[in-house]
Design brief:
This protein is an alpha+beta fold. The protein has a domain at 247-383: 2-Layer Sandwich (Dna Ligase, domain 1), CATH 3.30.1490. The chain has helices spanning 14-21, 58-67, 77-92, 116-131, 143-155, 157-160, 169-178, 189-197, 203-208, 211-217, 220-229, 260-280, 319-333, 367-383; strands at residues 6-11, 31-34, 41-44, 71-73, 97-102, 105-109, 135-140, 163-165, 247-257, 283-294, 305-316, 340-352. It is an enzyme of class 2 (transferase). This is Translesion error-prone DNA polymerase V subunit UmuC. Its EC number is 2.7.7.7.
């Protein structure tokens, strides 16, 4: 039986790379991408990393960026989402099975394929050719080792060519000895500190530690991580993503809001987006939690935060019913005299269709509601999100997210199409 071979394909500095695809003049310019409302740094190109830390507030580092010639961009989620889909489509057409792990990462099953490393280099070249996005690829018998191999492919790219294949025990052991503990998938800062107390400082130390002791002192997750580092598969490839147990839609306002009506618009907008995600995974929800809060860090602003859970009459995916419940919840928690900074919608008690059985007198979602939502999603899928929407959801909200450094939506908006000037 062929040895298991799992490849992790990871886009290099994905958000920054997306900004460069349609701007060849930025190929050698360091880039950072900012969070919602241009708050803090959430992505950096490789040449920006020595000068800027993740999470640094934009307003505090403007002089640093200017001094080092670093350009800042607002988050362009429409562009990043579309480019991600293009990358995943290219990879999917070249491998037997694919698990999309995140917007810029995917696990591919290369088991039984002769010349797995050669195929990985072909994938890397094809993704770059078709999308302009550079990638790194790690191949190993387990997902955790593939993650570590991917980190090595990027760290020593000049020597590896962006691909590392741990196809022998010697290669695996060498990498484990030279990789610090915080490069291991799933080992965060706090876990690193706890393991350090036990003398575990490298990936090799963790692989050699007793698995049952790790489970007893820490968690089953760390136990599985140690076993995977030894080459024992504990994590399967998931070709279909598991349905989420909760769905959240939350965003800070572009400006402070005092009146309830613009907040109601925002709540309706977030609820509509959450309902789209709910239907996309084929689920129904029975409870909606709505919460609002003021800014929590300005000492000159009065602080207020409150939330409430609203029970729905029956499990539903109907945008109209979810918005109605959220709006009623907002009425119950809103208080005048505060400058509100953020609202959140959380869909709870999610159930897949057919997973619940009510009694004889239980209410159920009418079939007509399902058909209406199907038409809504079909129109928006064909003509773009927001083409058909509830009346309470505005087209251009005044409270929308502040993105003063936003690049064009090159691939999803006619007005953002790439312009080429001929001389």
């Amino acid at each position: 039986m062929a040895e298991r071979a799992i490849a992790l394909v990871d886009c290099n500095s994905f958000y920054a790379s997306c900004e460069r695809v349609f701007r060849p003049d930025l190929r050698r310019v360091p880039i950072v991408v900012l969070s919602n409302n241009d708050g803090c740094v959430i992505a950096r190109s490789a040449d920006a990393k020595p000068h800027v830390k993740m999470g640094e507030p934009y307003h505090q580092i403007r002089d640093t960026l200017r001094r080092h010639g670093i350009l800042a961009f607002s988050s362009n989620y429409a562009l990043y989402g579309d480019m991600s889909q293009r990358v995943m489509t290219v990879i999917e057409g070249m491998v037997p099975a694919l698990e999309v792990y995140s917007i810029d990462e995917a696990f591919a099953d290369l088991t039984g394929i002769s010349g797995a490393e050669q195929l990985a280099r072909q994938i890397r070249a094809q993704v770059l050719k078709c999308t302009g996005i550079p990638t790194g690829i790690g191949i190993a018998p387990t997902k955790t080792l593939a993650k570590l191999a991917n980190a090595a492919a990027k760290k020593w790219q000049a020597n590896t060519g962006g691909v590392v294949h741990l196809d022998t025990p010697d290669k695996r052991d060498w990498l484990l000895r030279h990789m610090p503990l915080d490069e291991v998938w799933g080992v965060g800062r706090r876990m690193k500190e706890h393991l350090g107390i036990a003398g575990i400082h490298t990936a090799w130390d963790l692989a050699q530690a007793d698995a049952w002791t790790l489970r007893k002192r820490h968690s089953v997750v760390i136990e599985k991580t140690a076993r995977e580092l030894r080459g024992v598969p504990c994590l399967d490839l998931e070709s279909e993503p598991q349905p989420k147990q909760e769905i959240c839609s939350s965003r800070a306002f572009g400006e402070r809001l005092h009146d309830i009506e613009p907040i109601r618009e925002a709540v309706a907008t977030y609820a509509a987006r959450a309902a789209e995600k709910l239907r996309a995974q084929g689920s129904l929800c029975k409870k909606v939690r709505i919460s609002i809060r003021t800014g929590m860090f300005n000492p000159n602003e009065a602080k207020f935060a409150k939330g409430v859970v609203c029970e729905l009459p029956y499990p539903t995916d109907d945008t109209r019913l979810i918005i109605k419940a959220a709006s009623e919840g907002l009425d119950a928690i809103y208080r005048t005299g505060y400058a509100y900074a953020k609202a959140e919608i959380l869909l709870m008690d999610l159930r897949q269709r057919g997973e619940y059985t009510g009694d004889l007198f239980s209410l159920e979602q009418p079939e007509t509601a399902g058909r209406v939502m199907g038409v809504l999603d079909e129109i928006n899928s064909r003509w773009g999100r927001g083409t058909l929407r509830p009346a309470r959801v505005p087209i251009e909200p005044g409270w929308g997210m502040r993105r003063e450094l936003l690049s064009p939506r090159y691939t999803t908006d006619w007005n953002g199409l790439w312009k080429v000037q001929c001389r």
